[in-house]
Amino acid sequence: MSMALYAASQRSSSTEAGRVTRHSFSFGPHYDPANLGFGPLVCHNDDLLDPSGSRPAGYPEHPHSELEIVTWVLEGALVHTDSAGARHVVAAGHAQVLSAGAGVRHSEVADPASGRCRFVQAWLAPSQPGGAPSYVLGDAPAPATDLVEVVGGAGLPIGTRGARLLVARLRPGRAVALPDDPRQHVFAATGAADLEGVALRAGDAVRLDGEGGRVVTASEETELLVWSFGDRRPGLG
Prior knowledge:
Distance between the termini: 14 Å
Largest sheet: 7 strands, antiparallel
Strand content: over 45%
Order of helices and strands: EEEEEEEEEEEEEEEEEEEEE
Helix content: under 10%
Structural class: mainly beta
Number of strands: 21
Low-confidence stretches: 233-237
Mean pLDDT: 93
């Protein structure tokens, strides 16, 4: 059993015109063999896009395969277009799941009409590789003081068995109990909170292994993103 804090200051970052990305795991040129993923979670990027420049801010069309790509928009709006025919403006408080399957191309850029855009994107290994790509967009859950399933479980479908993304928007002093699943990645997107003596500031994450049921208490207005994994099959790290 373990509970490890990964502070925002420990994350590597990449900067392009109109975009700053902070990486929770080894990513691209920021190779870290000791930090390749957590269970099926292989990428957890926090992107800030500024659409005020002359070029679209974000990611022009590029390919993916054999990934479940989950995006949660925190601020502004993101324009998603893919080769499977989907085109949507994803507003703050909404989630999207792109199952890349055997291969898909997509682009994600800030919607200039909505100003600055911030989103968190996770990549997960699928339980069954291959197949046709698919896309689904979820409505914003009602404001809640508890964890709400956004992806997996009662949320949007995802092709990674046992994976769930839960979101809570907490007022100061509000406490929530984490799920009992074997592995959890707890990310403070905004605000500040306490996880049973572990202080979480905006951008900090805690990785829990065999520590289900721990309690998080907000000390400020906090948006909490929790990836919870109930599948402990061999090969999931």
